[in-house]
Write a structure and sequence with these properties.
The protein has 120 residues and is mostly helical. The chain is 88% helix and 0% strand. It has one helix and no strands. The chain has one helix at 3-108. The longest helix has 106 residues, at 3-108. The radius of gyration is 49 Å and the shape is rod-shaped. The termini are far apart.
């Protein structure tokens, strides 16, 4: 065997080892990609389920917010109506009470509670 033949055999052996290593790396990479695809698919399914649940929750909360808004609006209208009615009613009740007391004093003959000024 000549030196060139030995170099050719060693080169072919090294090349075969490199090809075998490359094939091994490619097979491992393919397995890793398959696992990654499965994981991504699982994640996609779970994410879609969570998004659907979140969308349902958001719709329910939006309905509740609308109900609370309606209640607050109703309470504001009632408060405005109460204020509009309460002031005249209170004045009328106070006038009626004062009139009733004055009439009672006139009937009973009590003197007026007003103080008269004395001339000095």
């Amino acid at each position: 065997m000549a030196a060139g033949d030995v170099v050719a055999i060693v080169g072919a052996t090294v090349l075969t080892m490199l090809v075998a290593a490359l094939v091994t790396v490619l097979v491992l990479f393919a397995r890793w990609l398959a696992e990654l695809r499965a994981t991504v698919e699982d994640l996609r399914r779970e994410t879609l389920a969570l998004l659907e649940a979140a969308a349902g929750t958001v719709r329910a909360v939006a309905d509740d917010v609308a109900r609370v808004d309606a209640l607050v609006s109703s309470a504001e209208r009632l408060d405005e109506a109460k204020r509009a009615v309460a002031t005249p009613v209170v004045k009328a009740m106070a006038f009626g009470t004062g009139l009733s007391r004055a009439a009672q004093r006139l009937v009973e003959g009590e003197p007026s509670r007003r103080r008269r000024r004395r001339a000095s």
